[in-house]
Amino acid sequence: MPVTLTLPTVLSRLTHGQATLEASGTTVGEVVTQVADRFPSLGPRLRDEKGGAYPFIAFYLNDQDTRFLGGLDAPVTEGDEITVVLAVAGG
Amino acid sequence: MLVSGGIVSSPKRPARDVDETRFTLLPLRCAVCGARYEPAPVAICEQCLGPLEPEYPAAEAPPTRATIASRERSLWRYREFLPLDGPPELSPDSGFTPLLEAPTLARRLGVARAWLKNDSVSHPSLSFKDRVVAVAINAARAFGLDTVGCASTGNLANAVAAQAARAGMPAWIFIPHDLEPAKVIATAVYRPHLVRIRGTYDDVNRLCTQAADRFRWGIVNVNLRSYYGEGSKTVAFEIAEQLGWRLPTAVIAPMAGGSLLTKLNKGFNEFRRAGLVSDELPRLFGAQAEGCAPIVRLVRENSEVIQPAIPNTIARSLAIGSPADGVFAARAIRKTGGWAAAVSDQELVAGIRLLAETSGVFAETAGGVTVAAALALAAGGHLRADDEVVLCITGNGLKTVDPLSDIISDLPTIAPRLRDLAQLVEQPALP
């Protein structure tokens, strides 16, 4: 299902400056995997070698933290927006 | 290591001069992978996305106790341990708050001695956030950023608004929509661009992270965070100096994002390395409210992975469900042999009252959490009879009076007649 994935500037440097990408999948993890396959240098920044989430990156699905929705297994539907947020902020 | 943004070839301070400022900033280094960066308003490593920290020059001789003691009574007396190379241009007089001995509280805790590090009287906005903003606003000026901002649970909003007003800088401040009115008013009075966000602090923080990416602002706890956080170390420095250049055996601090506790650990370590103190590091104890205790959970479960929480507590200044420094705070607690405690809203209100009644200090809800957690830690056997304990009181009670409203519900009201007063005074039991 087509969805969009938005990256912060520091990561969009690895996608030729594209901050918003279109991709597809049935879960957040599948979408991330598809994007990682298209941009090999981005992949290792989005998830670890086992495909798991890093502590310093949060994925938001339509403004909701996916850690409350099943993490990378959170299901996505057509038109959803996934936002990658760097978690080293605040406090 | 080569990184975009430049190569840092030596630990010396950068030669770059900034037009209006009398100082430069230190280069940065990733706390996780060690990648090095030139001074910049960035807080995240491009290599591993870990947090960046200032890199202090190794060869510079540390100041002596006498040198520090001879300086101004502000956090800038510890300038060699702060990331500015030169005197600050802005906010010269934050820090150096009182350290008060609290013997009655010590007896209640069953420890040898207890003190309060009283940042409830911090200048200018009555919380420890004045320290971090003092550093960050100077960093913003050095980078030529003419607008500052923050995501805040209240105290930081107060500090940024006040210090930006004094500096003549525009400020964009973002807060959860349901913050305590006193904290909102104590921000709005300085006339920043103050925006309420429908959501929790974590929602506000996410928006601010994106805003820092979009606008050329110095958001103190986002893109200036590497420099900002260093201001918290001065709490540790002041504790050591005010105790007579020695360390306590235990320190109890509230935890929201976890930065304060992490920087306390860093500060005590830096003073030891500089030879300014020689005692063992204090055991560090963290305090949170039960309604938002992701770091306490991390400590108790000996985990390295934050499980974010949806906050539900009246301790709004600690209501961060996804704490950026949670993992580092938990590590500091474990490494020093400390522990962490979470307390109920009822217990934190009792903590505020106990502190006021025994020490004459009126703390905000976070201070109530700290006192209540200290009692819980004592009851749980985590404090020893020979302990010398410092409790960090980080904000002023006048900002969060609502939870205490019932303490004035049964006050006596009398006519302005001596007879009525005498009757009240001489009655068997005063209310």
3D structure, described in words:
- The complex is a heterodimer of chains A (about 90) and B (about 425).
- By secondary structure, chain A is α+β, with helices and mostly antiparallel strands.
- Chain A contains 3 helices and 5 strands, in the order E-H-E-H-H-E-E-E.
- Chain A has helices spanning about 10, 30-40, 45, and strands spanning about 1-5, 20-25, 55-60, 65, 80-85.
- In chain A, strands 2-1-5-3-4 form a 5-stranded mixed beta sheet, covered by helices on one side.
- In chain A, strand 3 (about 55-60) and strand 4 (about 65) form a beta hairpin.
- Chain A is globular and about 25 Å long.
- Chain B is of the alpha/beta class and about 425 residues long.
- Chain B is built from 14 helices and 17 strands.
- A 6-stranded mixed beta sheet of chain B has the order 8-9-17-14-15-16, sandwiched between helices.
- Chain B is globular, with a radius of gyration of 22 Å.
- Chain B starts with a strand and ends in a 5-residue tail after the last helix.
- The relative contact order of chain B is 0.12.
- The chains are: A alpha+beta (about 90), B alpha/beta (about 425).
- At the A-B interface, strand 3 and strand 5 of A face helix 6 of B.
Main sheet overview of chain B? 6 strands, mixed
Q: Decide which structural class fits the backbone of chain A.
A: alpha+beta
List segments of chain B where confidence is low: pLDDT < 50 over at least 5 consecutive residues. 1-19
Count of strand segments of chain B: 17
Mean pLDDT of chain A: 91
Regarding quaternary structure, what we see is heterodimer
Strand order of the largest sheet of chain B: 8-9-17-14-15-16
- Compute the gyration radius of chain A: what is it? 12 Å
Low-confidence stretches of chain A: none
Helical percentage of chain A: 10-25%
Amount of beta strand of chain B: 5-15%
